[in-house]
Write a structure and sequence with these properties.
The protein has about 300 residues and is mainly alpha-helical. It has 2 domains: about 210 residues, Alpha-lytic protease prodomain-like, CATH 1.20.1510; about 80 residues, Cation efflux protein, cytoplasmic domain (Alpha-Beta Plaits). It is built from 9 helices and 3 strands. The chain has a 3-stranded mixed sheet. Strand 1 and strand 2 form a beta hairpin. The radius of gyration is 25 Å and the shape is elongated. The two termini are about 30 Å apart. The N terminus is likely disordered.
Length: about 300
């Protein structure tokens, strides 16, 4: 069961790397056109979108490298392997998103207060439309991988934010073409920043949960205790710890107090199989470690209990 889980995880990771590589190629191919279009039109919204596209490229590259690193096997020095590289990549993506949003937002407010910049709406509209098409393609490529990986989720959020930014830039260009109100560009820029920040902070929140080794939100620790207590021969369960090495890779440890007869009849192997199967079947935890103790032994560990 553990082998199948590991095989499925490896296959999913390979698919994620392919998604990231394709999305990176799409993003890189459009970035140059966006930068040229932003300079030619004088559009802050388009420049912000180009800046976000640039951060997309960096974020996708970091995510791709992290995904490759995460596939490396464990060593004596890195006993869990390099899976947490994906979480660090998600952290970098979240920080990049926040910085880009802040820079665009500040410049947009300045332009609203000092509306002196001329915006060429026609090239702005064309380039924003090209950017939107590229972002939609990249989003479709990445969609699905975000459910199992923070790294993929960070990459997809960057592309989603850029997609929304392209839509805002298109809307601003249309308003400028129809009304001549150049401030629409700054308003679109503020909207882009406002759309990016909440998603970035949600991503960073989940990254912090992993890095602080908090219990996964989709695992109920008390429910796990109850399941383990229900195993034949189990008296109590204490010193329970569950955390994520990376997204979708929970690790579980616990001390399990058992009746003396279990040791007397040599039933520890069967009990360990039952406990491990319980974790894998009911809670999708493939990596679990149990310390079996005879009743009364926990009194010698009082200092270690919560």
């Amino acid at each position: 069961m553990g082998h199948d889980h590991a095989h499925d995880h490896a296959a999913a990771a390979g698919g994620d790397r392919t998604r990231l590589a394709v999305a990176l190629a799409i993003t890189a191919s459009v970035l140059v056109a966006q930068v040229i279009g932003a300079v030619a039109s004088g559009s802050l919204a388009l420049l912000g979108d180009a800046g976000h596209m640039s951060s997309d490229g960096i974020g996708l590259a970091v995510a791709l490298v992290a995904s490759v690193m995460a596939a490396r096997p464990a060593t004596d020095r890195h006993t869990f392997g390099f899976q947490r590289m994906e979480v660090l990549a998600a952290l970098a993506n979240g920080v990049i998103l926040v910085v880009v949003a802040m820079l665009v937002g500040v410049e947009a407010v300045r332009r609203l207060l000092e509306p002196s910049t001329h915006v060429e709406a026609a090239p702005m509209l064309v380039v924003a439309a090209v950017g939107l098409a590229a972002n939609v393609a990249a989003y479709l490529v990445l969609r699905g991988g975000d459910r199992r990986s923070l790294n993929m989720r960070g990459a997809m959020l960057e592309v989603l934010g850029d997609m929304l930014g392209s839509i805002a830039a298109i809307a601003a260009a249309v308003v400028i073409l129809l009304t001549g109100v150049a401030q629409a560009d700054a308003v679109a820029s503020i909207l882009i920043a406002a759309l990016i920040v909440p998603r970035a902070f949600l991503l960073l929140r989940d990254v912090v949960r992993v890095l602080t080794e908090a219990a996964p939100r989709d695992r109920d620790v008390e429910q796990i205790r109850d399941h383990l207590r229900g195993a034949r021969g189990v008296v109590a369960v204490h010193d329970v710890h569950i955390w994520n090495i990376t997204s979708g890779a929970p690790v579980f440890t616990a001390h399990v107090v058992v009746e003396p007869e279990v040791f007397a009849r040599g039933g520890t192997h069967e009990l360990l199989d039952e406990l491990g199967g319980c974790l894998a079947e009911h809670f999708d935890v493939a990596h679990s470690t149990f310390q079996l103790e005879p009743a009364g032994h926990e009194e010698h560990e009082e200092h270690a209990h919560r």
